[in-house]
Amino acid sequence: LEIDIHDAIHYLHPVHFIWQQGYNMDLGANLVEINYCYQCKDGRHVWIQAGPPYPKLQNRYLNFFDCGNNRKAIQGVIGQWNALELEEKLAELGLPCCMVRDQGEWREHPQGKQLLQTPVIDIEKVADGEPRGLEPGDSAPLAGINVLDLTHVLAGPRSTMSLAEFGANVLHIAPPHHLDPKTINLGVNRGKKSAFLDLGDPNDEQKMRSLLPQADVFAFSYRPKVADRFGLTVEDILALNKKGIVCLSINAFGHDGVWKNRPGFDQNAQMVSGFSVTEGSREQPATSPVYYLNDLLTAYFAAAGMMVALLRRATEGGSYHVKVSLVRSCMWAQDLGLVSAEQYRSCPAADIFPRRLTDDPSAFTFPPKLVNEASPFGTITRLAPAIRYSDMPTIDLLPVVPYGSYPAVF
User: Fold this and answer.
1) Residue 53: is the preceding peptide bond cis (ω within 30°)?
2) Is the backbone of residue 115 left (phi > 0), alpha (psi -120 to 50) or beta?
3) CA-CA distance, 307 to 320, in Å (whole number)?
4) How far apart are alpha carbons 82 and 40 in whole angstroms?
5) Number of independent structural domains in the chain
């Protein structure tokens, strides 16, 4: 197994390295006006995040602030609040806001203490059953594995894309009226079939339930209340799938503790955990140099956890629940330690990429290895695989397709 460190850095933000017909499809979440670190009247900061953006979240924030969609206007309102009070108020409304903390402060917080006791990849056996082996021979490692993928944003979809890269049959379910941006689809849904299901429709809800007995893996990255609402809790799934299944749950702040139901994005995790104070300062918190960190770390942890659970199902039998979270991943990164000040000063400030595809290596911080792929979207240029194996069957992945291109069947 071989990996280049620069390739690995690019894979912390692969959605920046997507070109469609030569034009960069940058997600642009860092350019969204509302996504920012704002100072409160007590001098503390809060991070507000409306996603890539998601219009529903953005509108709910702006309705609460009752101001224009620009940072100056939003700062004017936030500056009238104490940070902790605003964090709690927006949490009550289901909006992903967090007060910026340093590492020590977070690890003394009840949720931080909870996560310190939680494995980065938490794998729990939730039911007994007979062993169900993987396909033998020279086939791909996950050949014959059906993955029902009910995930969104980056961490969940990238985790199941990793399973597709090992040969799994992945069916991604998208809500027809609340789609992720196209760049997310291009970046983290390659190798999958994509189908629409509206779980608010009883017929579509029944279709989802009919797929679960056929699934070897069920991946879920919405908040727990969504699972409760649509009967997709681990207990519900075990009642439908008796052959043994691996369930994946991804969230922001962990699956136990006082914050388990709070929403949050990658940057919320950086800010609340103390990562951003270390990266910048208490007065000027900073995201990672590539803006992202935890989405993709969590995706790779999730993929590893699902594969370990599938191996346990093959050898021990039973069903398993794999749990990962954005903040726990960030705490893992913090525990790796810091480079020296000299090393830090010698590093580039960002991992840049051009808007138009070019052969000029100076357009990149570190020129990436890229590949072209024909797709229904035209020619897509993306990162080449970061990991090279000495002995791995060739796996011909499906090209990325528009959301809803397939029927909801395995």
Assistant:
1) yes
2) alpha
3) 11
4) 6
5) 2
**Lookup result for tokens 């029927």:** 407
Structure-block tokens of residue 109 = 């917080």
pTM reported for the whole predicted model: 0.97
CB 140 within 8 A of CB 282: no
Residue 137 has pLDDT above 80, yes or no: no
Q: Please give the single-letter amino acid code of residue 97.
A: C
Strands 319-325 and 122-127: antiparallel
Q: Which domain holds residue 49?
A: 29-100
- pLDDT by residue (tens digit) across 2-57? 998 889 999 999 999 999 999 999 988 999 999 999 999 999 999 999 998 899 99
Nearest alpha-carbon partner for 353 in 8, 13, 3: 13
Same domain membership, residue 76 and residue 140: no
Q: List Cα–Cα distances, 48 to 64, 245, 345, 362, 372, in angstroms.
A: 12, 37, 29, 34, 36
Task: Tell me the CATH number at 86.
Answer: 3.30.1540.10
Quick: pLDDT tens for 223-239.
Answer: 988 999 999 999 999 99
**Residue 278 CB burial class (10 angstroms; 0-12, 13-18, ≥19):** middle
Q: Does residue 391 carry a pLDDT above 90?
A: no
Predicted pLDDT at 53: 82
